[in-house]
Specification:
mainly beta, two-stranded antiparallel ribbon, 1 helix, 5 strands
Length: about 80
């Protein structure tokens, strides 16, 4: 996520706003003994058909400080797909 609260497509100069993305699948991974070992992986597709993943630790800690990342995720439409 960049300073303008856009999600950067890693291999290009393209940045996306939440309404340009769709969450296709969410995977949560939890550590056996340490609550800090929680991570979530989002499979996303952009309106221009690019695919990507967003990875974030969750729980008490996040990879992104402040509320911007959480707000960004909440604005992305979800269309769960069994394909992923």
């Amino acid at each position: 996520m960049n300073e303008a609260c856009e999600m950067k497509y890693e291999t290009s100069e393209k940045n996306y706003l939440p309404h340009e993305l769709t969450i296709l699948k969410t995977y949560r991974f939890e550590g056996d003994s340490n609550p800090a070992d929680n991570v979530v992986l989002y499979v996303v597709q952009a309106d221009d058909k690019n695919f990507g993943i967003i990875i974030d630790s969750y729980g008490a800690d996040s990879n992104y400080p402040g509320p911007e990342f959480d707000n960004f995720l909440r604005e992305i439409p979800i269309q769960e797909s069994e394909e992923y």
